[in-house]
Amino acid sequence: MQFNSYLLFDGNCEEAFKTYEKIFGGKIEAMLTHEGTPTSCQVPPEWQKKILHARITIGNAVLMASDAPPGRFSKPQGFSVNIGLTDIKEAERIFGALSEGAAVTMPLGETFWAFRFGMLTDRFGIPWMVNVERAGVQAA
């Protein structure tokens, strides 16, 4: 079984995914707009170029997303996308890149369970956790 996060954006999915591609070194495999699809008649003309479905692979992980239909976007809450890393320098780089224009709720630092852990909501409204766990320590 594999779990993949599916994120919803308020019209800025394409920009977010191009940013994530750079930050994470991933590859965008799909970036499908409403234009030319059966859904094109269900959205207003200014929404034709918005993202119906996007998919990015980052190593062996997959992240998917779309722009929420007009009037249906809700601010993400009740979850964070966790990035588990083993390299402190890479965690610092990623957290720094995600922090641009973000609301940092917990600066990246050492904790009792992690060499580095931090939380933020990026400029696209997506909540993230960056985590470099200590071997053999599991957070409750």
Short structural description:
The protein has two helices and eight strands, in the order βαββββαβββ. The chain is α/β, with parallel strands linked by helices and 140 residues long.
Considering the chains and any ligands shown, give keywords for the structure:
140 residues, alpha/beta, 2,3-Dihydroxybiphenyl 1,2-Dioxygenase, domain 1, Signal recognition particle alu RNA binding heterodimer, srp9/1, 2 domains, 4-stranded mixed beta sheet
What does this structure look like?
The chain is an alpha/beta fold and 140 residues long. The chain folds into 2 domains: 5-67, 2,3-Dihydroxybiphenyl 1,2-Dioxygenase, domain 1 (Roll), CATH 3.10.180.10; 81-133, Signal recognition particle alu RNA binding heterodimer, srp9/1 (2-Layer Sandwich). It contains 2 helices and 8 strands; from the N terminus they run βαββββαβββ. The chain is elongated. The model has no long low-confidence stretch (mean pLDDT 94).
Rg (C-alpha, Å): 16 Å
CATH structural class of the largest domain: Alpha Beta
Number of helices: 2
CATH homology-level superfamily of the largest domain? 2,3-Dihydroxybiphenyl 1,2-Dioxygenase, domain 1
- Tell me the major beta sheet: 4 strands, mixed
Structural category:
alpha/beta
Judging from the principal axes of the Cα atoms, what is the shape?
elongated
Order of helices and strands: EHEEEEHEEE
CATH architecture of the largest domain: Roll
Cα separation of the termini: 23 Å
- Low-pLDDT runs of 5+ residues are none
User: What is the CATH T-level topology of the largest domain?
Assistant: 2,3-Dihydroxybiphenyl 1,2-Dioxygenase, domain 1
Instruction: Kindly state the percentage of residues in helix.
Output: 10-25%
Query: Based on DSSP secondary structure assignment, what is the total number of beta strands?
Result: 8
Strand content: 35-45%
Mean pLDDT: 94
Strands side by side in the biggest sheet: 1-4-3-2
- The count of domains is 2
